[in-house]
């Protein structure tokens, strides 16, 4: 969390460009980590003056580079800037979009964070053009751009083309669900308990006591133990609780 927060803070405040991959099994909290960091980042005073644009792309939806570029244009609200312009190449189009985000005096640009969910699916795009151009921009000092990829594939670097790999910063953050059953029970209680600021204090106390008794119940523990041995994915626990 602190590593990622510092990375994005440097992009926003000092205009540094970076790239990083968050790697971990499904349900290990990759998106949760990123959302948490972005929330903390937006609460910093320095960041508020220099707001971060944040296009979010998913490999499941943006199945080729053309669709991805359209989505970037839509999310950065630059449709009116592009209009009917015709571009020779993908790189020219992307460079034009980023140029359009420069401030009026042309000296400083708006920092941009590209989030690529299901990063491994972008690797299968033709010639990896999108990845090449994004990493290339994050290496050059034109626009402060940080590219964060989320993936569950451990061998992701092996899939990158040589030219793409050479432009990637090789920062990797690994997430693993390595808690034991005791902690799993704590998570179970935390998900069901009412917070201290709940308006009806007496009700909240009664409710939380019941949750405590529930977590000590043998039958409940057996069910949780079975799920825990099957998967530590917290989304499965949420589904069970629902």
Written overview of the protein:
The protein is built from 14 helices and five strands. Helix 1 packs across helix 2 (30-42). By secondary structure, the chain is of the alpha/beta class. It has two domains: 1-174, P-loop containing nucleotide triphosphate hydrolases (Rossmann fold, 3-Layer(aba) Sandwich); 181-241, no CATH class. The longest helix has 16 residues, at 201-216. It has a five-stranded parallel sheet, with helices on both faces. The model has no long low-confidence stretch (mean pLDDT 85). The protein is elongated, with a radius of gyration of 22 Å. The protein has helices spanning 2-14, 30-42, 45-49, 65-75, 79-82, 90-100, 119-122, 129-139, 156-159, 162-165, 181-192, 201-216, 218-230, 234-241, and strands at residues 18-23, 56-58, 112-117, 145-151, 171-174. It is found in: Nucleus. Keywords: ATP-binding, DNA replication, DNA-binding, Nucleotide-binding, Nucleus. Residues 186-241 form the Origin recognition complex subunit 4 C-terminal domain. GO terms for molecular function: ATP binding; DNA replication origin binding. InterPro entries: AAA_16 (IPR041664), ORC4 (IPR016527), ORC4_C (IPR032705), P-loop_NTPase (IPR027417).
> How many strand units?
5
What is the third-level CATH name, the topology of the largest domain? Rossmann fold
Net shape: elongated
* Assembly state (oligomeric): single chain
Low-confidence parts lasting 5 or more residues at pLDDT below 50? none
What CATH first level of the largest domain would be assigned?
Alpha Beta
Which bin fits the share of residues in helices?
A: 40-55%
Radius of gyration: 22 Å
Structural class: alpha/beta
CATH architecture of the largest domain: 3-Layer(aba) Sandwich
Elements, N to C (H/E): HEHHEHHHEHHEHHEHHHH
**Cα-to-Cα separation, first versus last residue:** 28 Å
Work out the strand percent.
5-15%
- What does the main sheet amount to? 5 strands, parallel
CATH superfamily heading of the largest domain: P-loop containing nucleotide triphosphate hydrolases
Kindly state the mean pLDDT as a whole number? 85
Number of helices: 14
Tell me the strand order in the biggest sheet: 2-3-4-1-5
Q: How many structural domains can be distinguished in the coordinates?
A: 2
GO biological process, one term: DNA replication initiation
Family: Belongs to the ORC4 family.
Organism: Zosterops hypoxanthus
Protein name: Origin recognition complex subunit 4
């Amino acid at each position: 969390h602190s590593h990622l927060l510092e990375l994005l803070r440097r992009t926003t405040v000092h205009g540094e460009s970076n790239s990083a991959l968050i790697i971990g099994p499904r349900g290990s909290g990759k998106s949760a980590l990123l959302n948490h960091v972005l929330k903390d980042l937006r609460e910093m005073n320095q960041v508020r003056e220099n707001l971060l644009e944040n296009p979010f792309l998913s490999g499941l939806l943006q199945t080729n580079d053309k669709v991805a570029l359209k989505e970037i244009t839509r999310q950065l609200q630059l449709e009116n800037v592009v209009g009917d312009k015709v571009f020779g190449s993908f790189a020219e189009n992307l460079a034009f979009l980023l140029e359009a985000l420069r401030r009026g005096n042309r000296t400083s640009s708006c920092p941009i964070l590209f989030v690529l969910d299901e990063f491994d699916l972008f690797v299968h795009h033709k010639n990896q053009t999108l990845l090449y151009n994004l990493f290339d921009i994050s290496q050059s000092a034109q626009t402060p751009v940080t590219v964060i990829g989320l993936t569950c594939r451990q061998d992701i670097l092996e899939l990158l083309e040589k030219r793409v790999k050479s432009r990637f910063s090789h920062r990797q953050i690994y997430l693993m669900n390595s808690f034991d059953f005791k902690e799993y029970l704590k998570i179970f209680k935390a998900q069901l308990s009412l917070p201290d600021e709940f308006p009806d204090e007496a009700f909240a106390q009664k409710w939380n006591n019941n949750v405590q008794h529930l977590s000590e119940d043998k039958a409940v523990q057996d069910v949780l133990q079975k799920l825990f041995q099957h998967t530590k994915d917290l989304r499965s626990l949420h589904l069970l609780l629902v």
